């Protein structure tokens, strides 16, 4: 294996002679799910240090892979057919543990569900997310966690309300077609079909705090990544403004300027306005939900990571959340990534003690994408040499 260029925030701490390694990566977008990344890291560690126990906990921050992370942590997967972002049926999953249900928007309304990746900024809908929420209610959930991220739509969550049983009507009393553009013709709301959510706690878990409208809102900031050009952004912004006016009048909750209202194309707004939801930073809340603290207890090392470790990571992404939680537990945290763009000082402030990148051992970025799994396994050799001296025996995790 080639020499690995490791960016360290500080020298490795004196590690305890016993304890397991907790492997807690997020997805490597376009290459590996969080569960796949965890499996490859574990395989490499078991070859390099077979005596040291490894505990896997794939993680997510509310976006793609959140339901899978919950299932990997022991939750039950429930699959149901819903309306996808283009109106076609898709099979989506939610995760259930006791009376808590975790609904991932990307499962029903995500960019990855667009046929052949063709963006549909004006017509993509969040209807399927509402249908997933309705299914959680029918399952008897008393707490619903709605993970936001990876959305294909900019409809302010209007589709979600339709999916839950609400009606959006034009001036002739006809149901509006799906998508954010149609909201310009919204005339009235009929909410009599919505389920009774009294007694159900709804929590929105996301990693953005944008308002619904304006220069930092859903359309201006996230519209372009969903295919909206300048004219389309004007159309969507006008639709969202009309939606906000009528939605706030109907719900009597002024939610457009609340942190997180602009999340997932404005789905955060509808959750705050109509579902009585509260907004929680995605990674911190989900780490608690997935039982991170219990799995970190007694660990000698935590390995986290994601596809690109860069300045976006510092804005509350999963690796930083893991690193801070590890610091609270007194366990050193190192990160792996496809590419690394953070300095040692930035890593130190994020509580990450060292970072390892696939591009350190394979400069070809396309090959890194194609061969991310085997390369991650190779990278664990450098991590083991630096952080897991072979003379320190392991023990079984209690």
From TrEMBL:
Which InterPro entries does the record cross-reference, listed alphabetically? Answer: Glyc_kinase_flavodox-like_fold (IPR018193), Glycerate_kinase (IPR004381), Glycerate_kinase_RE-like (IPR018197), Glycerate_kinase_sf (IPR036129)
Q: Which UniProt keywords apply?
A: Kinase, Transferase
- Give the originating organism: Actinomadura craniellae
The keyword Kinase is assigned to this record: yes
Q: What are this entry's molecular-function GO terms?
A: glycerate kinase activity
Is-annotated flag, keyword Cytoplasm? no
Instruction: Cite the Gene3D superfamilies for this sequence.
Output: Glycerate kinase, domain 1 (3.40.50.10350), Glycerate kinase, domain 2 (3.90.1510.10)
Similarity remark: Belongs to the glycerate kinase type-1 family.
Query: Domain of life of the organism in this record?
Result: Bacteria
The protein here is known as Glycerate kinase
Which GO biological-process labels does this protein carry? organic acid phosphorylation
């Amino acid at each position: 294996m080639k020499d690995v260029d490791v960016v360290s925030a500080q020298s490795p701490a004196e590690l305890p002679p016993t304890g397991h390694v907790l492997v807690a990566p997020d997805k490597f977008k376009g290459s590996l799910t969080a569960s796949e990344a965890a499996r490859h890291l574990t395989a490499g560690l078991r070859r390099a240090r077979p005596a040291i126990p490894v505990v896997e906990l794939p993680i997510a921050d509310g976006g793609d892979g959140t339901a899978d992370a919950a299932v990997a942590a022991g939750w039950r997967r429930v699959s149901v057919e819903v309306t996808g972002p283009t109106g076609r049926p898709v099979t989506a999953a939610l995760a259930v543990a006791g009376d808590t249900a975790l609904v991932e928007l990307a499962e029903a309304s995500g960019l990855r569900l667009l046929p052949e990746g063709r963006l549909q900024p004006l017509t993509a809908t969040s209807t399927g997310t509402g249908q997933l929420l309705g299914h959680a209610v029918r399952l008897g959930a008393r707490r619903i966690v709605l993970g936001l991220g990876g959305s294909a739509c900019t409809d302010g969550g209007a589709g979600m309300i339709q999916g839950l049983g609400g009606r959006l009507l034009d001036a002739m009393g006809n149901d509006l077609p799906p998508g954010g553009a149609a909201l310009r013709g919204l005339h009235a709301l009929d909410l009599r079909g919505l389920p009774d959510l009294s007694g159900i706690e709804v929590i929105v878990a996301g990693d953005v705090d944008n308002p619904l409208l304006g220069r930092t809102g859903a359309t201006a900031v996230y519209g372009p990544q969903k295919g909206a050009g300048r004219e389309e952004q004007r159309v969507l912004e006008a639709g969202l403004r009309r939606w906000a006016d009528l939605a706030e009048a109907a719900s009597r909750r002024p939610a457009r300027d609340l942190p997180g209202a602009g999340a997932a194309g404005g789905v955060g707004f509808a959750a705050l306005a109509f579902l009585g939801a509260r907004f929680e930073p995605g990674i911190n809340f989900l780490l608690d939900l997935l039982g991170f603290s219990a799995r970190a207890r007694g660990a000698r090392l935590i390995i986290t990571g994601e596809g690109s470790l860069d300045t976006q990571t510092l804005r509350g992404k999963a690796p930083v959340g893991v690193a801070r939680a590890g610091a609270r537990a007194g366990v050193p945290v190192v990160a792996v990534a496809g590419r690394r763009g953070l300095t040692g000082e930035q890593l130190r402030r994020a509580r990450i003690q060292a970072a390892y990148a696939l591009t350190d051992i394979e400069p070809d970025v396309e090959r890194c994408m194609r061969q991310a799994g085997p390369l991650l396994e190779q990278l664990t050799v450098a991590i083991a040499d630096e952080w897991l001296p072979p003379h320190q025996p392991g023990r079984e995790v209690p």
